[in-house]
Amino acid sequence: MKTATVITAFFLFTLSGCASKPAPPDITTAEIAQQATDPAAESAAAADPLTATEQLSSGKTTTIKTSQGDIEIQPTVVDMASRDDPETPEDEAAEQQYNDPLEGWNRAMFSFNHVAYSYALIPLVKGYEYVLPDVVRSKIGNAFSNIREPLSLLNNLAAGEVKDAGTNLGRFLINSTVGILGLFDPATAWFDLPPAKQSLADTLAGYNVSPGPYLVLPILGQNNVRGSTSVVSGVLLDPLRQITSPPDTYYLQGVDAVDTFSDRARVYEKLYQQADDPYLYFRNQFLQGVKRDDAFNKQPE
């Protein structure tokens, strides 16, 4: 067996063994930004603070503390489609505008994913965070982001974004060499080359391809038909498949998946617990975000 295979297998075995150890309850909801200066209003807010879900629903930014630092969440407020009937309640009008013809399938997959997250991925993430300190996880995330730069390069070329494609190439060359296989990001720190991420779904959106119906994928979570093209292209063109061979490829992809999910695992737990109907809450936030992004991309430069 290859040395890399042994090391990776041992690493994953260690994570699995530590997965049952609970992480400290470090999630708290931040105070509402820009509170009124009136002492009475401040005391009322302190006595009855809004939950993270309530803050987002009311259009306020909220901050959730995780073991990897504070995560600031911007609300995907306002449904930007026009309302045909002004007398229709706002929540019902928004509901009619959501493209969810696959709700039966989506709810089933959402429930399946919640079980998988709760009993497999989230415990594994906690074990991952227990074993590795923040700084190490940050470098691992940098390395996987660097590996995906060629994919962004191809998608930027397909979108006609030649300058961004050049940025992808420069970042990949610099971070793969000076940055020691992408563990560090001198391209941003020293050469002023910030990330220029681009997926196939982003490219299609640039060509005014409709997002299509809302779609919840097994394990991979919420998406839409357009966004699912990024999943397919990511699997078929995954650079890890080009530079490694099984079973090393599967081990590295597993670590990548756990590292990626660790950024949002605790946020997911917190918001799921606070939502009256978690499926509708996460769906509405996602679809509003898609509308917001599409509207932004259509703005004249």
Automatic annotation (TrEMBL):
Q: Region Disordered: what ranges?
A: 34-64
The lineage, from the top, is: Bacteria, Pseudomonadati, Pseudomonadota, Gammaproteobacteria, Chromatiales
Q: Which InterPro entries match?
A: MlaA
Q: Give the record's GO CC terms.
A: membrane
Q: Name one Pfam family in it.
A: MlaA
Where is the secretion signal located?
1-19
Which protein are we looking at?
Phospholipid-binding lipoprotein MlaA
What organism is listed for this UniProt entry? Rheinheimera pacifica
Q: Which PROSITE patterns does this entry report, sorted A to Z?
A: PROKAR_LIPOPROTEIN
Q: Does the keyword Lipoprotein apply?
A: yes
Family recorded in the similarity comment = Belongs to the MlaA family.
Q: Where is the composition biased (Low complexity)?
A: 34-55
